Amino acid sequence: MTAQLLDGRALSSAMRKELDAEIAAIKAELGVTPKIAVVRAGEDPASVSYANAIQRTCELRKLAFEMHALPEEVGEAELLSRVVRLNEDPGVHGIMIQEPLPKGIRAEVITDALSPAKDIDGVHPANTGRLAQAEPVGRSAGVSDFFVPATPAGGLELLKRHGVALNGKLAVIVGRSRIVGKPMAMLLLRENATVILCHSRTADLPAICRQADILCAAVGRAKMITADWVKPGAVVVDFGVNFQNEVMVGDVDFEGVQEVASMITPVPGGTGPMTNVMLLKNLLEAARRQGQK
Ligand code: NDP
């Protein structure tokens, strides 16, 4: 069996067309150009590159963008006051704090200071809490005006738009970070999957992975998940971004696993391109909610 690709490049490109229509509608109906402010401190290469990618995307889509690039030695108080200023700026609709932050700055103090309404990467406790509280799909609508982190939201979108059945399926997620693994578990639980969330202390990880109908990897270890960890016919979502001899590879050994799985995300070209598009989707949602108040 050679697995069908869950192609994030193709889907994100189709979604960008949908977003362009929504951008035009927001400009026409509300008279505003949605603006994102990216705050970063220091020169971590991955963080700089992600911030630049967001800027390029905004320029291409004719969205407004502000980069707040602060020096490595910025203090917590100065960073906090920058966030508070952006919260209060009516021209800014979404704020993204790039991690890692410099040593000595407590990330949770900064994310707690974000306005939940502008927290388009879903890291404020009000947003993570709402996701944890969310009713399963098919039950009462509950509160829906919260933001979900862009990376797991993109993974879920790839599954849903490829028609992958989630209801009643066993989903195993490897990695429990607050920006990928944990929210992915909450999203799949809300879709009525039965979820097992694994981490570095999980005993007999390969045996647990082998049970999965849907296997998600968010670890940060190159090609850790091999074909013998995967149930034949499973759907595999790889969030990992690792470099081996300067080549980007996922947490999943793609070559081997594609022979066992029924569907799989490639790296690159799977979950990565979806992150950017889901962040923009959240920005547009934030701009609409703020414009309609
Ligand atoms: P973190 O480092 O924050 O979390 C890694 C998780 O993996 C932790 O829960 C850790 O367990 C677990 N883990 C580490 N080693 C093992 C092991 N040997 N067995 C089982 N579990 C293990 O990473 P992130 O969630 O931020 O990122 C994960 C991957 O996703 C990275 O490659 C990152 O680059 C990528 N990423 C991709 C994005 C995209 O757009 N596609 C966006 C963001 C990240 P424990 O909690 O016990 O320490």
Structure characterization notes:
With 293 residues, this protein is α/β, with parallel strands linked by helices. The protein folds into two domains: 32-118, Leucine Dehydrogenase, chain A, domain 1 (Rossmann fold, 3-Layer(aba) Sandwich), CATH 3.40.50; 150-272, 3-Layer(aba) Sandwich (Rossmann fold), CATH 3.40.50.720. 41% of the residues lie in helices and 16% in strands. The strands form three sheets. Strands 1-11-8-7-5-6 form a six-stranded parallel beta sheet. It has a three-stranded parallel beta sheet with strand order 3-2-4, with helices on both faces. Helix 6 (150-161) packs across helix 7. The longest helix is centred in the N-terminal third of the chain and has 23 residues, at 8-30. The structure holds NADPH dihydro-nicotinamide-adenine-dinucleotide phosphate. NADPH dihydro-nicotinamide-adenine-dinucleotide phosphate binds at residues 151, 174-177, 179-181, 198-202, 205, 218-221, 239-242, 271-272, 275.
Keywords:
alpha/beta; Rossmann fold; three-stranded parallel sheet; 10 helices; six-stranded parallel sheet; 2 domains; 293 residues; globular; 16% strand; binds NADPH dihydro-nicotinamide-adenine-dinucleotide phosphate
Layout of secondary structure:
Layout lengths: L3 E2 L2 H23 L4 E7 L3 H16 L3 E7 L5 H13 L5 E4 L9 H7 L11 H9 L16 H12 L8 E5 L6 H10 L3 E5 L6 H5 L4 E4 L17 E4 L3 E3 L2 E3 L4 H4 L5 E2 L6 H21 L2
Parallel strand pairs: 1-11, 2-3, 2-4, 5-6, 5-7, 7-8, 8-11
Antiparallel strand pairs: 9-10
Helix pairs in contact: 1-10, 6-7, 6-10
The site of NADPH dihydro-nicotinamide-adenine-dinucleotide phosphate has 25 residues, from helix 10.
